[in-house]
Design a protein that fits this description.
This protein has a domain at 35-184: Alpha Horseshoe (Serine Threonine Protein Phosphatase 5, Tetratricopeptide repeat). The chain has 15 helices and no strands. The chain has helices spanning 3-20, 31-34, 56-63, 69-84, 88-104, 108-121, 125-141, 148-165, 170-184, 188-201, 206-218, 222-235, 239-251, 255-268, 272-286. The two termini are 37 Å apart. Mean pLDDT is 86; it is low at 4-9 and 20-48.
Length: 287
């Protein structure tokens, strides 16, 4: 699969995974299901402990299935060279190469583990931020409840280490807030507080507003979600926030606004299956 195609798949999967977890009208999951360990956004996920078998090899197995045989073979060759290297310097060089390769393919989980290994050897805020952001993205994309606790624990570690080195870094505060809401802290309000603190300092912060909007959707506060997503698309009109904006409008019964936002999504994604789904949503709203 080509890089652009993988990018489209990642975008669509991200949106659909979040939609599945939303307590939309008529589809609200029971409280006990939403809070059990392993449920997306569950409040008890912080009690899960990562298992040692969740590592770059574990996540790469599934990720390589998206690649062409040639691309998968190239990555496997780099992995073999990394494991056979006895030099720390060479290991870091190969790990960076692998991290960048997975970044180019828009596959965050393997990249996250390589950035984590780099950060543990080169203790810089940038390295920890790279690791944490990929772990958050990996958590957002996966439906693998076995891997989710490891992604969360590693994300929390990464952002806390980044904040030790750069206490005022808003990206680190945002990333930790997202991880905490997803289950990295005993109470999701810990993370919400961090994100609100970020937008108090930077009202138009894209990532903080996007995630506050998502968490508003998950709690059924669609009016608040609309305002968050509008803040995002006014600065950076992309398919993901427009899709969530459309869903929020739909839940509020604002059909013309929802249709317009779905149309924006169609303009931004050249994918027949995705656009067919958008047409179905639009048709439903017009009936």
């Amino acid at each position: 699969m080509k890089k652009k195609q993988i990018g489209v798949v990642v975008i669509v999967v991200a949106m659909m995974v979040y939609l599945i977890s939303l307590p939309v009208k008529g589809l609200i999951r029971p409280k006990e299901e939403r809070t059990r360990p392993g449920a997306t956004g569950g409040a008890m996920q912080h009690e899960e402990q990562p298992t040692n078998r969740i590592d770059e090899d574990y996540v790469a197995v599934a990720a390589k299935k998206l690649l062409t045989p040639q691309m998968a073979a190239e990555i496997s060759d780099k992995e073999a060279r990394l494991k056979s290297s006895a030099s720390d310097k060479e290991q870091i060089t190969i790990a960076k190469d692998l991290a960048h390769t997975w970044d180019d393919l828009n596959v965050p989980a393997p990249a996250a583990f390589y950035y984590l290994s780099i950060a543990r050897k080169e203790n810089t805020a940038e390295n920890w931020l790279n690791a944490g952001s990929r772990f958050n993205d990996a958590y957002k994309l996966t439906q693998d409840t076995v891997a989710q606790p490891t992604f969360l624990v590693n994300a929390v570690e990464s952002f806390k280490k980044a904040l030790q080195l750069a206490p005022d870094n808003l990206e680190a505060q945002t990333g930790l807030g997202i991880a905490d809401v997803n289950g990295g802290a005993p109470s999701p309000m810990t993370g919400i507080g961090l994100l609100l603190g970020v937008v108090a300092k930077d009202p138009k912060n894209l990532k903080a507003n996007l995630n506050l909007g998502l968490f508003s959707m998950k709690s059924g506060q669609f009016e608040k979600a609309v305002q968050r997503f509008k803040t995002v698309v006014e600065q950076k009109p992309e398919v993901e926030p427009y899709f969530y904006l459309a869903e929020s409008y739909k839940q509020l019964g604002m059909k013309p606004e929802a249709i317009a936002a779905y149309q924006k999504c169609k303009e931004m994604v050249v994918d027949a299956a995705f656009n067919q789904k958008m047409d179905e949503y639009i048709k439903e709203l017009k009936n």
